[in-house]
Fold each of these.
Amino acid sequence: MASSAVLEQIYTIVAQIPEGRVTTYGSVAKMTEGATARMVGSAMRHLPEGHGLPWHRVINASRRVTEHGGAVRQREKLRAEGVVFDARGKVSADLLWP
C-alpha cells in the first residue's frame, strides 16, 4: 500500500476530476510523487465509507471500467454524469481529464 503522503496526493487529484470526465489509474499515478497505477487502484478500492471522492471517474488505460465488484455501479454513476460508452465499453478519448 502507498504511504500516507502518496495516498493524500492520490485523493487530492481524484477530488479534482470534473463531473462527466474520466482519467486513468496511470494518469493519476503520473501526477503523484511515486505512485503506480496499481497503487491508485488499491487506493480507490480501500476508500473509507462516506468519503465523497469521485472514485468512479478513474478507469483503466484502455478507457474501460475495470471489472470488479463495483463495476456495474461505476458504469451507472458515470452514465448518470453523461459519460457514454461505445459498443466495446470504451469511453471517448474526448472525455479524458486533464
Note: DSSP finds four helices and two strands in the chain.
Amino acid sequence: MNIRNKTALHRLPVFRVLQCQALAAVLLALLCAGLWGWVAGYSGLLGGLIAWLANVYFAFKAFRYFGARSAKAIVQSLWAGEMGKQILAAALFALLFVVVRPLEPLAVFAGYLVVLAVGASALLLLNKNPKH
C-alpha cells in the first residue's frame, strides 16, 4: 500500500458540508439562547460541536485517499473513520455530561441531531458543482 493519493480536507467537496454543519450549530445555539436562555444556548452549541467534530474526524480519515490504486487504503480509512467517529462522539458526550454544569440535555441532543440532519441533507441543498 505504498501508492496513495492524498487530498487536503479543505479541497474536498465534503468541506462545504462541514461548513454548513458549523453554521447550523451556531444558528441553533443562538435560537436556543434567545428562546430559553444562555444555558440552553451553549448546551445546543456543545451538542452541535460534538456532531461536527466527529464528522470532521470522519471526513479527514475517510476522504483523504482517492484513485483506483488507493482502493485498499480507501476501504480501510472509511472503516477507521466511522469507528473513530462513533468512539469520539461517545467520549465527547461522556465528557460533556461529566464536566459541564449547568447543562440542558434536551438542547444538547437537539444540537447534535440538527447538525446530523444538516449533514444528511446538505448534499441535496448544495450546488452540484463543488468548485463554486
Note: Helices lie at 14-36, 38-62, 71-99, 105-125.
Amino acid sequence: MTFPTTTLNNGVEMPMLGLGVYAPGHNQEVQQAVEWALEAGCRLIDTAAAYYNEHEVADGIQASGLSRRELFITTKVWNTDQGYEATLRAFDKSLDKLRTDYVDLYLIHWPVRETRLDTWRALERLYADERVRAIGVSNYYQPHLDELMAQAEIVPAVNQIEFSPYCNLPEVLDYCRQKGIQPEGYAPLVRGLKRNDSRLVALAEKYGKSTYQLLVRWSLQHGVVTIPKSVKQDRIRENFDVLNFAISVEDMDLMDTFHDNTRIADDPMDYL
C-alpha cells in the first residue's frame, strides 16, 4: 500500500499518515509496533526524546530490513533540554539512540517561554549543517508562531498540534497554511475517550468503518498529517486502512461541529 504524501515548504516529501509511539508503560512493545506499522506500509515514525523509546524505534527499523532512505523519522527536543547549546547536545543523544546520522524532521516539543527562541536557533543550525531534512515546532498556536516568525530565518516546515473533531481549531490550521507550514495532528483517536459518542458511532456504521478509522480519515481530509498511536497489531492495521473510503462534505461539516475542547495534552495557550 502506498500512502499519500505532502511536500513541505523546503521541498521535502513527508508521508501524510504515520505511527505515533507515545506509549507510557508500553515501551517494551514499541519495537514490535514499529515493525507491524512498517509491514503495513507505514513509512513515517514519530517519536521524541521524552518518550524514552528512540532506541526501540531504531530496533524496529533495523528488524524491518528497510533502508533508512525509505523512512521518515521525526523526533523532538524536550522542554528541559531546550536552549541553544542544550538542544544541540540533545539532538546528538537522539541520533545515537536512533542509530542514524540524520533525522527527517526535528521539532521543538513545547514552546517553553524562556528558551524557545534559542532552541529554534539551534534547529536552524542543525538544518544548515544538513543534519536534519526539515525543522518544525509542536504545540504552537498563533501567538507562539507570531513571536517565532518575527525572529526566525527559516519558516517552520511543520507544526504538530493535538487535532481531532473534539479539539479542532480551524484558525490555527488557517494560520499555518497562510505561512506555508504543514499542520500535523497527534491524538487523532482522543485516546479512545470518544469511541462511544453516539454521533460518531452512527457515522462509522454508515461508512462501514470503525470510529477510529473515521477519526483518522477526518484528519487526513483536512489536509493534516496524521499519526495515530497503537501498540496492537490489529489496531495498527485498522488505523492505516483508511484510504479506500472518503467522508462526504456534509459529514465532514457535521464532524467539524463536534469540537468541545477535549484534550489529552496541555493547552499550548498555557505556554504564553
Note: The beta strands are 5-7, 13-15, 19-20, 44-46, 72-77, 105-108, 135-138, 158-162, 182-186, 225-226.
Amino acid sequence: MQKNNQDRLMRQREVIKCRIKKLNGKQNEIKSKSSSMRESIVKKYEEMRRVLEEDCRITLSLLEMEEMAAVQALDNLIESNCVLLRDIEVQLNEGMTDSEIQPGDRVTMCEDRVLELLTATDPGLIKLDEAKSDQLLGLTNNLLLFIRSQIPIAKRLLKSYSSEVVLDASTAHPKLIISSEGDCATFTDEWQDVPEHEGRFDTTLNVLSVQCWDSGHHYWEVDVSGKIYWELGLTYPSISRRGQKEDCWLGRHAESWCLEYFDGDYNAWHGGHDLQGTNSKPVKICRSYHL
C-alpha cells in the first residue's frame, strides 16, 4: 500500500514538473513574442520619424528655393541702384565739367535714369510665391491634424473595445439619483422614495449596469471629476445587495474587482487584497460611491 502511494505521488510529481516545464516554455514564448513585437513597433516609429524628417527636408528646400530666387532678384535690383548712385556721386565730385553736355541737361538725364530705375526696382515687384507657401503650410497642417487624429494609438485601441454602459436605477442605493438616460449618478443626502426591490443596494452607495458580459475586451470612460473618493469595477450578479457593508463593497470578496481612488491614491481590490481570482461567470459593471 505504501509503495502504491509513493508511486502515485511520484507520478503526480512528474505531472506537476511537466506542467511547470510547459508553463515556463509558454512564459518564454510570450516574452519572445512580446520582445519581437516591441522591436517591430520601435522600428515602425523610427521609420515614421525618417519619413517625416525627409518630408520636412523636401518642404523646407522648396521654401528655400523660393527665398533664394527672391533674394537674388532683390540683389540685382540693389546693384542697379548702387551703379546709378555711384554715377551720381562721380558727377557731383567732378562738378559736371563735361563741355559737350550742359549741366542742366546732365541733371535732366540723371533724373530720367533715376525715375526709370525707381520704376523698375519697385520692391513690391518682388514677392514670394505666397500661393505655394500657403499650400505647403496647409498640407503640413493637414498632416499634423491627421497624425493627431490617429494617436495616442493605445487609446484608439482601447476605444475599439468601447462598450455602452447604462446604469440600472432599480439597483441604485436610495441616496443615488440616476439620470433618465442612465448615464449619470448623483449623490444626495436625502433618502429617495424609490420602489422596494430585492436587487437594490441598501447599505452601500452602489449602482449596477444594465449590461452584462461573460467574455471579450470591454472599455468605458467615467467622469469622476471633483470626487475625492470613488470606486469603479466589475462584479458578478450575485454580489450582496443588503446587509453588512463588507459584503456589498467592490473588491472585498471573490465576486468583484474594483479600482479605488482616494485623495490622490489608486488601489486595485479583489478578494480583500488578493488579485488572482478568476471565474467565467458573467459580470456587470458596478459604479460605487462612498461619500
Note: The chain has two domains: 2-151, 155-291.
